[in-house]
Amino acid sequence: xxxxxxxxxxxxxxxxxxxxxxxxxxxxxxxxxxxxxxxxxxxxxxxxxxxxxxxxxxxxxxxxxxxxxxxxxxxxxxxxxxxxxxxxxxxxxxxxxxxxxxxxxxxxxxxxxxxxxxxxxxxxxxxxxxxxxxxxxxxxxxxxxxxxxxxxxxxxxxxxxxxxxxxxxxxxxxxxxxxxxxxxxxxxxxxxxxxxxxxxxxxxxxxxxxxxxxxxxxxxxxxxxxxxxxxxxxxxxxxxxxxxxxxxxxxxxxxxxxxxxxxxxxxxxxxxxxxxxxxxxxxxxxxxxxxxxxxxxxxxxxxxxxxxxxxxxxxxxxxxxxxxxxxxxxxxxxxxxxxxxxxxxxxxxxxxxxxxxxxxxxxxxxxxxxxxxxxxxxxxxxxxxxxxxxxxxxxxxxxxxxxxxxxxxxxxxxxxxxxxxxxxxxxxxxxxxxxxxxxxxxxxxxxxxxxxxxxxxxxxxxxxxxxxxxxxxxxxxxxxxxxxxxxxxxxxxxxxxxxxxxxxxxxxxxxxxxxxxxxxxxxxxxxxxxxxxxxxxxxxxxxxxxxxxxxxxxxxxxxxxxxxxxxxxxxxxxxxxxxxxxxxxxxxxxxxxxxxxxxxxxxxxxxxxxxxxxxxxxxxxxxxxxxxxxxxxxxxxxxxxxxxxxxxxxxxxxxxxxxxxxxxxxx
Length: 667
Hints:
15 helices, 6-stranded mixed sheet, about 25% helix, alpha+beta, 5-stranded antiparallel sheet, about 675 residues
């Protein structure tokens, strides 16, 4: 016979059907339960809680068939992955769905095969019992029960009724067939098993109050009446989308591999669960843990069942599952409690081919904070945003979220894979919050191969001297030299301005040549040597007429004629980029883009790239500083540099004349 195992010291009903056990799934030292007085009469129905059960979770109509000796195969061939294995807050638990429903107060019999031990039966998905902050609970607090199962017939009653789950104390390495009697069949859908057309008819007719939508990685437990009212249009596509979101947006993104032999990097076998319920404080709609609980209302039903919502607007579910995935023991430092959990919505949005709407929604809140001068002690910094009276407190989570948006959109979403794997591989967890900040700093610096201390400082975060020494001396990463904190994660603009002044190279001994220039004399004598004379008012201009010897390329019939300027520095030099000044006395004749080639022989050039230039009224006489590689800012070694401007890339001149005042190089 069975034992009624409750997770609370408060018994769910007035009848005494057994004993209480400690919380948790892995229960040892089970008492012998033979001889317990359980009413086995299948015709007897204990209606002592019918009034409460009718309110929640609901009664099973008498017209719904009670099944006898109904066989259900439960897959107990899995590897248990704990939150502590992965250093995350919560991992999926071991609930195994059966699609069986125990009617309130009625006898349920579960027949377990010989030799099978360590199983528990749970009746009811609603395992929360707390009433703090809930003046008038909308259901009784304890409405579920757990009972240990033994080989042979096990007798159970629950005065409220509910879906039946099998909870193994440990994996058994096999599938087990159980026989259920006295149960109703819930109209649950299981991806890859249930026919969606037949299921649509089944759920229309069902009088079982709760059902499940089950994918391979996530399960939703919801009220049948809502499915009958609002419908679920395509359960196959829906649960495939949810599975994709979990696999790619949670497991893959954090470096977890399904079936991995490495326990530190093994994705959970068990499934996330979202259970709809009514026991909530005012102002709370969902909360994390296992299972995640969400309000039993239309809004959250539609969140679970709208495919476009899964791919885009469903913030809440990803938010709560994100809480479960947080690495608070290692790198998710103070201030990130309602921040790093939301990064999973960013990733899921990318999985489905777009940027999270939240980034554009809250980016503007971060801009004033970024611009503020920061102070490690007093004043404005990351921690001070939580202080009462701080002007950024009300928006602190949104502001902090944008630091992560900048990192992911600027440096790549693989950073999360890197920091999660680094966190699991770390020999120890972090001893305090400074250790977590240091861990984040080191991981970010390793990922970007740059000392990111200036970026953290701009966000009001400060690293220890030990961590700084590791990054700058042990790893020898170069100090960040760009204003990445001004990168706009929505438009992907900004953040490339140098924070270290370029060193401009002297032009002594350099020569410049071109395939066309104006040789008419006087003010119209505008040779390529003007480009390297350090005089921003002297102009190079292509030939207009009567030029000897250069050809008048502008007035030829060739539409794609290209102007070519070649500078010889006389010796091989190292440079990170070039400077350019458009025509100083006009907002026309400006090059809109320019091709750059370099080489150490006049006969062998390689293309560096095609660069967009500022042109028009804002560019008149302005020195433009352009890196060969804006990302890495690496040096290039060469003697010759060649600039090419196509006639079609010149603004405001029908003849396609380009005109420049100066060219230079820097490192």
